[in-house]
Design a protein that fits this description.
The complex is a heterotrimer of chains A (491), B (496) and C (100). Chain A is an alpha/beta fold. Chain A has helices spanning 6-15, 21-34, 46-61, 104-111, 154-161, 178-184, 218-228, 272-287, 299-318, 336-347, 350-363, 369-392, 415-419, 426-431, 460-478, and strands spanning 41-44, 73-77, 115-120, 167-172, 187-190, 210-215, 258-262, 291-295, 395-399, 435-442, 448-454. The radius of gyration of chain A is 21 Å and the shape is globular. The chains are: A alpha/beta (491), B alpha+beta (496), C mainly alpha (100). Chains A and C meet through helix 9, helix 10, helix 11, helix 12 and helix 13 of A and helix 1 and helix 2 of C. The complex binds magnesium ion and zinc ion. Zinc ion binds at residues 1-2, 37, 145, 179 of chain B.
Chain lengths: 491, 496, 100
């Protein structure tokens, strides 16, 4: 069993009455306050959080169990709707909008005893890989403030990496949880599509979006995932079967586990540092008894092309509702159409406009078959490629990001270069499979590197098992008096 | 909304203008296909739980989903699907696995700026509607979609293009609609009206819609083209919008076909376009040309999953279907030995059950139909089938005069009593046959000159004298004699 | 795939999406979108004949809800979020032309 993460530690202390939820929340709020320059939060809900923590403490005093996340401060990506608390998607167009309802995950967090402390910064409407596309300014990487935290969930990643909150929720459409987790040195997980309700998640690309946990340990990520996974009748794409119990997954060994390293993601386009850490992870797993081999998954690479047609197409339609009529920004104009145009032109940033136009083009008359239609067929091939790989392997191993955290402005001028940040992650979204990024040491310049464990649909159990093992293997390797073999050694 | 492919059905309309150079005196045929949007009678909206009700205060029947708030997701209403299947089965359509799609266009009363509809895989495909006249109109498809909100244009005297601003009410947004698309099988304004009337009756019969055109729960768009009579090709069509009543439908179709015929007759072309019917001016005017048609960028709705009704569900719905107007016409026609068209009025008035029961109680079908059509236009009230049958028997046995029959029937409608009871109370005791003969003979004896004129006069004279003697007999019997019996007696005596 | 996306294509797409582009933006976006679409040509090497489209990653069907009314939103709360309102309705600048 991996050592209890900070979230698990808070929850068990609060439930046992050894620590107050108020103290945990105050600690978190103070850390957020002190780390203002990170730009991790769009809004901090201190008052409500303290009130909520007080209620949890009273419940404990009354002999009740507030739940598995009792008193744990949680940050929410600012595209998850919170009743009475502004939800902006880091966009001017939604500035000031206050949702009249809570996302299903917010209800579930409440039921689990968690305390929401604020809303985190992100690339506008989750479009980006650096959190530079926020209308409210960028988020900085706590590991190196001159570098991006990744994106689009940069704020949630920075909140956890900077120790501001032990847990954060984020969303992943093409890697938006896993890539920033990798760049900030935390754990980030995208569940099987349909495992976690999307009700209340402001849509980017509906058939790809999933909410998932970010945490500093695999165990904490599993704890948060377990609190939010399950069927939701408000989401038609929610998987009807109950989410499985992860008990045993975190303690399970990898002896005999078949691990396939995706060969397409070990070569060109992947930084040497990243490749080295991937090799180290593979070697560590092998040394722990896993059967590690290479596997070709061509779709892992060409999926990116399909992704950059499908996601913008769905986004172009999802974002049509921001028109200045019912909520959010309105730029006045003499006629309704002019008003729509003026509002959208002023309210959206360049990246959002690019993707809306790309998606509109991919769906437009005369181009549908060549672009959107073709991308959906490619998506079928992605599913088939993975199915073939999973006939031979229980999980797959790949880098999360082709590079470590890059500097601000490095890729903003070249959208295509930015899009390539997602090359290792998008295929899981296209296939709807779960995947997790686990920190596995750092590169030559000391920046964190994550490795990604991919599993077939509903394979969260085996995915967490491999991820927890990797975490233990890394910790063991770095512990000077550890009994485990060092994992740095190449075979 | 329209502009969908025919889901494997025939190409519906083709461009091309056969009217060009049509010789003078060409006879023209109007070709009409209709798209009917029917609001379904559910308790809640198609994709969310806010109420589906007409006429509430603006923006009081709304929830996050039908308002399209960020983060919300649609979940399909089972009852709406059931109603759609009922209509499909009533039309003899094939109920198929279907997929929802997004139709993307901007309009302030559309909360998401896309409409969730069905595109290339609608729930109901094919089928037909048999009109009372016996004409069978093909159905292309009947698919589910959500309604929009409602815009009110303020200022500028309510004219849309001169309005100062617009107000939007989303109560109607998300109300379930069934769009029923016909083949272009209709050939006149009258047929178009007959089709909508029959479709409405069918929707009402299966409980799918309240069919209130005046409240907008039934809305009709008409695709109209004309072609030289006998031509096999279709002319270029125009789609007519804003037809808000059956009467408007007839007027709009007539005006539009006249407009197209005038164009073609004078050597001009009809251009494919969408036109707006203006009730006040009685004209259609250009709304959008084909070139201006919006690129709707349909794609499968990713927030919904395929709808695959299983056979058991479909069969259960089929088993629960009531008799349809067409079936009721055929049933009554068979029972009365008439053509279905002949009994359509009685079925339309919902009097067919009474007619059948009266027949079963022994009444002659022709007499039943006669009374229903001629004397019971305002309803049958408390009239019972056995009562009607008994009355028809009394009438056949000449126990009541025709005036008395009408009076008794009216009283039966009011009170539900038997004709014998009503007739007795009114003093309509029929004059016994022997008594009547004595009265007739007495009056002949009293008026020998007139009797001579009746026997020997020309037709005109004879008729006049028949009237005279009948009147005398009626006076003597205080109107209780049966006219037919009197005539028979007079004839008998005259021939003697 | 088709020819490289043109400025006219981008201008048309911007109109469809209710966005307005300045001359510089039109130029820049045309070039950037062209790069992305060029990159997407790598899928041309794939044999997609007879391959069905995937629009949902996880196969679920017939998700239906009972026809039971649920709580709605309070009109005042909803209108409080609107840029402009009048008489319980959302007020917008004049709409020219009818819904398609
Ligand atoms: Mg239509
Ligand atoms: Zn329609």
């Amino acid at each position: 069993m991996s050592a209890a993460g900070p979230a698990a530690a808070i929850a068990s202390a609060v439930r046992a009455g050894d620590r107050s939820a108020i103290s945990a929340v105050e600690e978190s709020l103070a850390a957020i306050d002190a780390a203002g320059e990170l730009g991790a939060f769009n809004a901090v809900t201190a008052e409500a959080a303290l009130a909520r923590a007080g209620a949890i403490d009273r419940a404990v005093e009354a002999g009740e169990d507030p739940g598995p996340l009792a008193g744990v401060p949680v940050a929410l990506k600012d595209n998850i709707c919170t009743r009475g608390v502004p939800t902006t998607c880091s966009s001017r167009i939604l500035e000031g909008w206050v949702p009249p309802y809570d996302a299903t995950v917010v209800d579930l967090l409440g039921a689990a005893g968690a305390v929401i402390v604020g809303k985190t910064n992100m690339d506008e409407f989750a479009m980006g890989s650096s959190t530079e596309n926020s209308a409210f300014g960028p988020t900085r990487n706590p590991c190196d403030p001159e570098r991006v935290p990744g994106g689009s969930s940069g704020g949630s990643a920075a909140a956890v990496a900077g120790g501001l909150t032990p847990l954060a929720l984020a969303s992943d459409t093409g890697g938006s949880i896993r890539q920033p987790a990798s760049l900030c040195g935390v754990v980030g997980m995208k569940p099987t599509y349909g495992r976690v309700s999307r009700y209340g998640l402001v849509a980017f690309a509906s058939s790809l979006d999933q909410i998932g946990p970010m945490a500093s340990t695999v165990g904490d990520a599993a704890l948060l995932y377990s609190a939010i996974a399950g069927h939701d009748p408000l989401d038609s794409t929610s998987i009807p079967e109950p989410a499985g119990d992860l008990t045993g997954a975190l303690a399970g060994d990898v002896d005999g586990l078949r691990v396939g390293v995706v060969s397409e993601l070990c070569g060109d386009g992947i930084d040497g540092d990243v490749r080295a850490r991937l090799d180290a992870a593979a070697t560590a797993l092998a040394s722990a008894g896993a059967q590690v081999g290479e596997v070709s998954v061509p779709a892992a690479v060409f999926g990116l092309s399909a992704y950059f047609l499908i996601a913008p197409a769905e986004a172009s339609s999802n974002l049509a509702r921001y028109d200045g009529v019912r909520y959010g920004l309105r730029v006045p104009a003499p006629g309704a159409v002019d008003m729509n145009v003026a509002t959208r032109t002023a309210g959206f940033g360049d990246e959002v406009k690019r993707r809306i136009m790309l998606g509109t083009f991919a769906l437009s008359a005369g181009y549908y078959d060549a672009y959107y239609g073709k991308a959906q067929k490619v998506r079928t091939l992605v599913v088939r490629d993975f199915a073939a790989a999973y006939e031979r392997f229980d999980v797959l191993l790949a880098p999360t990001s082709p590079t470590v955290a890059f500097r601000f402005g490095e890729r903003t001028a070249n959208p295509l270069a930015m899009y390539l940040s997602d090359v290792c992650t998008v295929a899981s979204n296209l296939a709807g499979h779960p995947a997790i990024s686990v920190p596995f040491g750092s590169g030559s310049d000391g920046l964190p590197v994550g490795v990604q464990v991919l599993a077939p649909a509903l394979g969260e159990h085996v995915m967490f098992r491999a991820a927890a093992a990797l975490e233990r293997l890394l910790t063991g390797a770095q512990a000077p008096e550890g009994a485990t073999e060092p994992v740095e050694a190449k075979p | 909304m329209s502009d969908r492919p025919g889901a494997g059905a025939d190409i519906v309309w083709q461009a091309g203008s056969p009217g060009l150079g049509a010789p003078a005196g060409t006879e023209w045929e109007t070709v009409i296909g209709l798209e009917v949007h029917a609001e379904l009678l559910t308790g809640t909206k198609l994709f969310s739980a806010s109420p589906n009700a007409f006429g509430g205060e603006p923006n009081t029947q709304i929830d996050p989903v039908c308002l399209g708030l960020p983060g919300t997701l649609p979940v399909l209403n089972r009852h709406a699907v059931e109603l759609a299947i009922r209509v499909g089965l009533a039309l003899g359509a094939e109920v198929r696995p279907s997929v929802f799609a997004r139709k993307n266009y901007y309009y302030p009363d559309m909360p998401k700026n896309f409409q969730i509809s069905q595109y290339d895989r609608p729930i109901n495909v094919g089928g037909s509607l048999e009109l009372p006249s016996g004409k069978v109109v093909g159905i292309v498809r009947a698919h589910l979609e959500e309604d929009t909100g409602k815009s009110t244009h303020v200022g500028g005297g309510g004219r849309i293009d001169e309005a100062a601003w617009s107000l939007v009410d989303y109560n109607r947004a998300g109300v379930p609609l069934l769009e029923i698309v016909s083949h272009p099988d209709l050939r006149s304004a009258a047929e178009a009206r007959e089709y909508v009337t029959e479709l409405r009756a069918t929707l009402l019969a299966v409980g799918a819609s309240d069919g209130k055109m005046e409240e907008g729960s039934l809305r009709v768009d008409a695709n109209v083209s004309v072609r030289p009579l006998g031509s096999a090709e279709f002319g270029t069509r125009c789609e007519i919008k804003n037809v808000n009543s059956l009467r408007s439908l007839g007027r709009a179709v007539e005006h539009e076909s006249r407009r197209q015929i005038d164009l073609l007759s004078s050597g001009e072309r009809v251009t494919q376009e969408t036109r707006h019917w203006n009730e006040d001016t009685g004209r259609t005017s250009l709304l959008r040309s084909k070139e201006e048609a919006t690129d709707y960028r349909y794609f499968p709705e990713p927030d919904l999953v395929p709808l695959v009704p299983d056979e058991a569900w479909i069969e259960q719905i089929r088993a629960e279907l009531p008799l349809l107007p067409r079936q009721r016409r055929h049933r009554l026609a068979a029972a009365t030995g008439q053509l279905p068209a002949r009994v359509a009025l009685v079925v339309e008035r919902g009097q067919d059950e009474l007619a059948l029961a009266a027949g079963e109680a022994g009444a002659a079908p022709a007499a039943v139909l006669k009374h229903l059509e001629q004397n019971l236009a305002d309803g049958t009230g408390r009239l019972t089938a056995p009562g009607l049958a008994e009355l028809i028997g009394m009438e056949a046995r000449a126990e009541l005069s025709s005036n008395q029959v009408k009076e008794v029937l009216a009283e039966m409608v009011r009170s539900g009593e038997s004709p014998a009871v009503v007739a007795r109370r009114a003093g309509f005791e029929a004059v016994a046959a022997g008594e009547l003969a004595a009265v007739v003979d007495g009056i002949i004896a009293e008026h020998p000159a007139e009797w001579q004129r009746l026997r020997t006069g020309d037709d005109r004279e004879r008729k006049k004298m028949q009237g005279f003697f009948t009147g005398q007999v009626m006076r003597a019997t205080k109107g209780q004699a049966n006219g037919r019996d009197v005539a028979a007696l007079l004839e008998d005596r005259a021939e003697a | 795939m088709a020819d490289r996306i043109s400025r006219a294509d981008v201008a048309h797409v911007a109109w469809l999406a209710r966005l307005q582009l300045g001359a510089e933006e039109l130029e820049r976006f045309t070039s950037q979108l062209g790069d992305v679409l060029d990159h997407a040509t790598d899928v041309e090497a794939l044999d997609l004949d007879g391959v069905p489209a995937t629009s949902h990653p996880y196969p679920v069907s017939n998700v239906l809800r009972d026809d039971v009314p649920g709580p709605g939103l309070d009109r005042a709360d909803v209108l409080a979020q609107a840029p402009d309102t009048e008489a319980g309705q959302f007020r917008v600048p004049p709409v020219r032309g009818e819904s398609p």
